[in-house]
Amino acid sequence: MTLDIADENRVRTLTLNRPEALNAFDEALYDATTVALREAADDPEVAVVLITGTGRAFSAGTDLAEMQARITDPGFTPGEHGFMGLIDALTAFPKPLICAVNGLGIGIGTTILGFADLSFMSTTARLKCPFTSLGVAPEAASSYLLPQLIGRQNAAWLLMSSEWVDADEALRMGLVWKVCEPDELLVQARKHADVLASRPISSLMAVKSTMVAPVLAGVDAARARENACFAELMGAAANADALAEFNKGKES
Fold first, then answer.
1. Total-model pTM
2. Packed helices 27-42 and 82-92: angle between N→C axes, nearest 10 degrees
3. Which residue from 49, 60, 99, 137 could staple onto 22, CB 3.0 to 4.6 Å apart?
4. 76 with 63: CB under 8 angstroms?
5. Each residue of 227-249: pLDDT tens digit?
6. How far apart are the C-alpha atoms of 135 and 233, rounded to whole Å?
7. Using a CB cutoff of 8 Å and minimum separation of 24, what contacts does 185-189 make?
């Protein structure tokens, strides 16, 4: 299984489990996570969802080998839900969502934090939005959600530079809420998840819906703009060269 699911005290923990690929999202993992979020949303026994990763990565983002195959392989078969389905599920998720960033977070491994209600990060973790190094556009409404979350200039650096951000910098920016030692990360994330899960689910959902409602139109508009730019740039010279270089490095 590429996604482990565990329930305890009305908290459902989703653990990305492709450690050999640094928990990069292939089509199967996009589909599994989308379905898991939808099922958690509908389950009256689930109050909170906590997402984390296995091994030394939270998630290395979209599997770049599959991204190249999508461009170059006429026989490539996309998943049932894919990246867009996951972002739909995150946008619509009606309950508290907590991320525990245990290691490297790249691409969607960083932009997912725009959808989190609380984010915890290990002191040894690092985050990066590699869009400009891949010659593509932002994703997951990050061009809208990240300025909202961390301010225009922090978001500009994160989205434009393709540079790593360590835990201290992520905390300073407001990209994460708390930074923990590695062995305390899940302890602290679970402790706070349990507090939320002790509250009435109807009340939790009312708080979240009223907080999120003002930004939904902005999220939808940002996704449309990003998708248009992404479609234009994916497979163009800069992106093709970057993907070829990445996959050549993996083979050597």
1. 0.93
2. 20
3. 60
4. no
5. 999 889 987 888 878 777 766 66
6. 7
7. 185/52, 185/100, 185/101, 185/102, 185/120, 185/121, 185/122, 186/52, 186/100, 186/102, 188/120, 189/50, 189/52, 189/98, 189/100, 189/118, 189/120
Tokens of 152: 């225009």
| Antiparallel, parallel or unpaired: β 3-8 and 11-16 | antiparallel
55 lies in some domain? yes
The structure tokens listed for 145 are 């959600």
- The answer to whether residue 140 is domain-embedded is yes
Cα–Cα distance measured from residue 232 to residue 130, given in angstroms and rounded to the nearest whole number:
17
Residue span of the structural domain in which 77 resides: 3-183
Strand, helix or coil at 229?
A: helix
* Domain harbouring 68, CATH code: 3.90.226.10
Query: Does residue 127 form part of some domain?
Result: yes
pLDDT tens for each residue of 75-131: 667 779 999 999 999 999 999 999 999 999 999 999 999 999 999 999 999 999 999
Domain assignment present for residue 173? The answer is yes
Query: Using CA atoms, how far apart are residues 81 and 87, in angstroms rounded to an integer?
Result: 10
